[in-house]
Amino acid sequence: MSDISAFAGPGTRDGRVPPVLVTTVRRLFVPTGPDTLRCRLRYTLDDPYAVALDLFVDPVTDLRVTWVVSRELLDRGTRGASGVGDFRVRPVGDRYGTAGALRLTLLRPEGRVCLETGLSGVRRWLDATYALVPAGHESRLLDWDALEVALLGRGGRSA
Q: What are the pLDDT digits (tens) for 40-62?
């Protein structure tokens, strides 16, 4: 499978933009519709625990479906099966047993979609997100006061 990817990164704390990966995913087990879709993986410092996968379902209008998943879940899925529920990810081998692709399974009540893309491109992109925000340091970027206001509807700390 050919992985045509554009990678912007790696991104640093000195004002550079966090990494974005634009790649092509191949749809599996679908008798109708396009064989491939454009996919964009995004990481932001506003939500350091998550990554967003934008699937562009209509190339003319840029209509897209976005899935937001745990960065750690996607990372684990590049090494072995990961995820339960509506998002599952795992590396898949070629006929020689080499893990060369990453399979993403999206489950909805209406059905499921299985996609594959190049493993190495996603792995490099994830490495760039960890260079920007190392694992275990995500909570340092959270605005805890704003989170308290959003969750509890009140500001400030109690004495």
A: 999 988 788 899 999 998 777 87
Residue with tokens 């640093």: 12
13 sits in the region (left: phi over 0; alpha: psi -120 to 50; else beta) called alpha
The secondary structure of 24-91 as a DSSP string is EEEEES-SSS-SEEEEEEE--TTSTTEEEEEEEEETTTTEEEEEEEEHHHHHHHTTS-B--TTEEEEE
Phi-psi category of residue 122: left, alpha or beta, with phi > 0 → left and psi -120 to 50 → alpha = alpha
Q: 118 has which bridge partners? A: 101
Compute, in degrees rounded to 10, the torsion defined by CA atoms 14, 142, 69, 89.
70
pLDDT per residue over 68-92, tens digit each?
A: 999 999 999 999 999 988 999 999 9
pTM: 0.75
Could you tell me if 21 and 40 are in contact, meaning their C-beta atoms sit under 8 angstroms apart? Answer: yes
Q: Is the C-alpha dihedral spanning 40, 46, 47, 49 positive or negative? A: positive
> Under DSSP, is residue 127 helix (H, G, I), strand (E, B) or coil?
helix
Question: In sequence order, what are the residues at sequence separation of 6 or more whose Cβ sits closer than 8 angstroms to the Cβ of residue 63?
Answer: 56, 57
77-100 b/e with 16+ CB inside 10 Å = b? bbeeebbeeebbbbbeeeeeeebb
